[in-house]
Amino acid sequence: MYYERCDVQSILLLSANSTMGMGVRESAIYNSRIQSIQRYERVGNERKPIRLTPENIRQYVAQGAQAFYISYWYYAGGPEQPVGRDLVWTVRPQKGGLKISKCITKLIVQALRSLGIEPWVKYDGQLGFDIIVPLAYIPYECWFGNLQALDDLHHKLTDYIASTIVVSSDVSTHALSPSSLQLESEAGICLLSELRVRRGLLLAPMSLNPRTNLVSVPVNPDELDSFTILQATPPHLRPARWTLPPAPARALTRFAPATVPVQTTVSEVSE
Length: 271
Description:
This protein is of the alpha+beta class. The protein is globular and about 55 Å long. A hairpin with a 2-residue loop joins strand 3 (40-43) and strand 4 (46-49). The two termini are 36 Å apart. The chain folds into 2 domains: 2-83 and 198-236, no CATH class; 86-197, no CATH class. It has a 6-stranded antiparallel β-sheet with strand order 9-10-8-13-12-11. Strands 2-1-5-14 form a 4-stranded antiparallel β-sheet. A two-stranded antiparallel ribbon has the order 3-4. The chain has 4 helices and 14 strands.
């Protein structure tokens, strides 16, 4: 069985717990029996949040788990106490399929590397990629624990990525909303979106995609050109291993606000 593999469990567990003491991540499963994402499990008379451990992955699979999810948010104790989040972008092709997705993802990685960031990249199990900048990369003076300032930083980075791509390639950009861009070239069209919804979930690295049954495999950005869907099938997996940065990316202080907004209350954070 796929989820019994030690390499699969190791990466699932690492991603579910890679917080460097910044808080607790939520986990969830896609339960094929009820065809829905499930955040809680019943333990006796109690409803408890799903937590991935070496002991219970097999248990969840036996209960119908087809896919595993992790939150890109960190919490002090529960969902009512958000303390920060990773910065996440999705690249989804509208025309041009996997080829244009790889091209745009490479350009985004190059832009982030110019700021001293080595982003995590993973295939989404369909035709796109997810790009993750762990919160550990963000200098505290860029947001001072303020969730609104973190949102602003995310948007400034999107603007930086877009402007860098336009200068360095033949790709043009068009804003579709405050958090999404359309990127177009002769090879195709992609949608670049920021993920920021509170309690937002992302398909976990090494999880099967419940729609395609392909693996959402971590990818080495330097090997994007040679990546094929075959490499997202269980017999041919060669996952890249994600590591947390040893220190924040100091170049990001150029995006620090002159003044930090007053901290929003939990009720004011978008659901």
